[in-house]
Design brief:
mainly beta; Immunoglobulin-like; eight-stranded antiparallel sheet; four-stranded antiparallel sheet; 5 helices; 40% strand; globular
Length: 363
């Protein structure tokens, strides 16, 4: 495993799923961040293909496809993990939906608590459904809420995987990691060099704060991969410094598991978007995870698309479980080692592209 580091020269833009056609409400199109794995992997492979002789447009040669994988969904012997955010030498992850607290106006949090499966109830999801519930009733009295917009450090995530509320200092608000900048543009006629009438648009760019980087893990045969390169990334082909370094991406340590009444209870924390055609359902199996789903804390599903550089058109929008989703699982004690080995693995679809990275914790 090696590590790919992306450091933007200026701002970045990764458009959301709203229409971006003339007359369809294109004012203030927001930028999704962090970007999807497809955007990151596409930028890395395009830079690599250019180093191998690709002119920058059209299909790759057979020799390039043999080394980098096909033009479509196949990566052959390559595997990517991420993207993750690095800040001050530590990885940061979206605060899991099972972590609640009081969000103060000065970008600090207090009274952190962890949700866990409550007693079985009957609801619209079925019978004997265990909805997430705080450990103590004090959480309800204090009106603790999910920490949307907050990120947790590698150290804090390790505390959370051990079923302990993390220290307040391990959390950081996204405004301290990046800021949004409004930009206004107009389409240019390539023949005349003048602006096109009625083609004014406004978008929101992302500017990373100092010492914040995008990081991906990569493994496979990397002959000819550029160790340092300037590569376009995302919409408007914004330029990044891309560096290939030795070493793994930084993930929290996995906790130990002890059977209780012949069962192993474990929590699955989604770190990168999890692509799946079948959403998790209570009391059923999910993906290749041992056991059944007991409960879940699921933020609003994200819809990710992308760009088909061969057909030169957008990819269809597909729903994903967003980073920060948490699944509470239960399985037989004989699966203890299987559960532990899931830590740092990827589940769902397109895992070789970076999707579905998970961490395993206790509950």
């Amino acid at each position: 495993m090696k590590k790919l580091i992306f450091e933007p020269v200026d701002t970045l833009f990764f458009r959301d799923g709203r229409p971006f056609n003339q007359g369809e409400g294109t004012a203030g199109i927001e930028s999704l961040f962090p970007p999807s794995p497809l955007s990151m992997v596409g930028a890395a492979r395009a830079s690599w293909a250019t180093r191998l002789g690709w002119p920058g447009k059209g299909r790759w040669t057979d020799a390039i496809c043999t080394q980098l994988g096909g033009d479509g969904k196949e990566l052959d012997n390559l595997r990517f993990i991420g993207p993750l955010l690095e800040h001050d030498g530590s990885s940061y992850f979206p605060a899991p939906a099972s972590l609640v607290g009081i969000n103060k106006n000065d970008c600090t949090v207090s009274d952190l608590n962890i949700l866990r499966p409550g007693d079985p109830v009957q609801c619209d999801l079925g019978e004997a459904v265990r909805l997430p519930y705080p450990k103590t009733k004090m959480a309800i009295v204090q009106k603790q809420k999910r920490l949307g917009g907050w990120w947790i450090s590698q150290k804090g995530m390790h505390q959370l995987l051990q079923n302990s509320p993390p220290a307040n200092s391990t959390l950081i608000h996204q405004s301290q990691l990046w800021s949004m900048e409004p930009r206004v543009g107009n389409q240019i006629n390539n023949t005349t060099g003048t602006v096109e009438e009625g083609m004014l648009y406004s978008i929101q760019h992302v500017r990373l704060q100092e010492d914040v980087k995008l990081v991906m893990g990569i493994e496979g045969t990397l002959d000819g991969f550029p160790e340092k390169a300037l590569t376009p990334l995302g919409g408007e082909a914004r330029i990044c410094h891309m560096t290939l370094e030795s070493g793994d991406i930084c993930l929290p340590k996995k906790p130990s598991f002890r059977p209780k009444r012949g069962k192993i209870r474990y929590a699955v924390y989604v770190i990168t978007p999890l692509r799946t055609t079948t959403p998790p359902q209570p009391n059923l199996m999910f993906s290749k995870l041992p056991g059944t789903v007991v409960s879940a804390c699921l933020p609003t599903a994200q819809r990710w698309g992308g760009w088909d550089s061969i057909a030169f058109k957008p990819l269809p929008m597909t729903p994903h479980l967003p980073p920060g989703s948490v699944l509470f699982m239960e399985t037989e004690s004989k699966n203890k080692n299987t559960v532990a080995d899931l830590h740092g693995q990827q589940i769902g679809e397109l895992t070789t592209w970076g999707y579905g990275l998970i961490a395993i914790g206790q509950w």
